[in-house]
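Narrative of activities, Objective 1.

The group set out to show that a structural description can be obtained from nothing but a protein's sequence at a throughput compatible with the screening campaign. Below is one input-output pair from the validation batch, recorded exactly as produced.
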Amino acid sequence: MAKNYSPHQQRIIRNYYRNLDGIRAQRLQELVTELWLAETEKKRERLWARAKDLLEKGDAPPSEVAGILERRDVEALAHLVGREA
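Output recorded for this entry:
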């Protein structure tokens, strides 16, 4: 079933997908900050799960992503995000 979007809605959708890499990078930057400040292990687990989802959708080398996620290294994540941003 096709949806008919107004020209305004089409522009919003097009701009969202055009800027998706920037949006993903900003979310990862915010996650780095939240991970750094997280006080409980439960919160860290949730944040790492979100980081994993975002990293898997990005353009980072899979081997590097796997290493960061395995070590749970916030500094390496921040370095990776800084390179991609």
